[in-house]
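user: Here is a favour to ask of a fellow structure person. I have my own habits and do not want them to colour yours. Could you put it straight underneath, so I can go through it closely?

assistant:
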Amino acid sequence: MSKRILIVLHQEHSTPGRVGRLLQERGYALDIRRTPLGQPLPDTMDEHDGAVVFGGPMSANDEHPWVKDQIDWIGSVLRARKPYLGLCLGAQMLVRQLGGRVDAHPEGHAEIGYYALRPTDKGQGFSQEIGAPWPGRVYQWHREGFDMPGCCEPLAEGDIFPHQAFRCGERAFGLQFHPEVTYAMMCRWTVRAHERMAMPGARPRHEHLQGWHLNDPQVRTWLDAFLDHWLSPPAASTAPTCADRAAAADPARMAEPARRFAELV
């Protein structure tokens, strides 16, 4: 059977960047769906070996029907025990699926550029699992962050938005930062969305480009090791997943993430 990873993108010209290239090097075909353009997600994960949900300019709190449907759909990936990787918006949607909250910074700050990253105690152990240290600085492009659902393990933290990486069970991960970004992608983002660099806390464009040369080798090494771990077959287990535990605690809230968020705020 051929190996396939579902790739969820949120703009017409978005690409899976380095993550897509590394998956293809490992023999996986990429099934790309652009949900805001009306491309549907599969009803089951039977024909896919995992899913990566990327970022985008929209919010996980938006009222667009496709946003709500996609948050619901993430639950099907978790219940199927297939690998899930959420990057930026994809991580925030995972948080919403698990009952957590996504919000803007209380003082209006953004992270646009390179920022420091620190592993938690759990994150230090995860470094040993994958055989690579966390990068010291990572590329960010967001103005919202999230709280940590109680069933998740925080793996890395930052100064402006404290939660930067987490694990849900053994196979689902959320990263607030962008390890997939190539130099060409960075050049495009900083031109097409240059107004974001005027936000409080954002870095000027020249620091983005300089930061690439200083920080990217460590990010690339970490991502390579991370993907090997993420794709590796898990040990056989009948233990409930993070999603199972959250659903058992409150089935109605897990079934209706839009209503759940309205209650939280």
Q: What stands out?
A: Residues 248-265 have pLDDT under 50 and may be disordered. The chain has one domain: 4-239. Residues 205-231 form the longest helix (27 residues). The first strand starts at residue 4 and ends at 9.
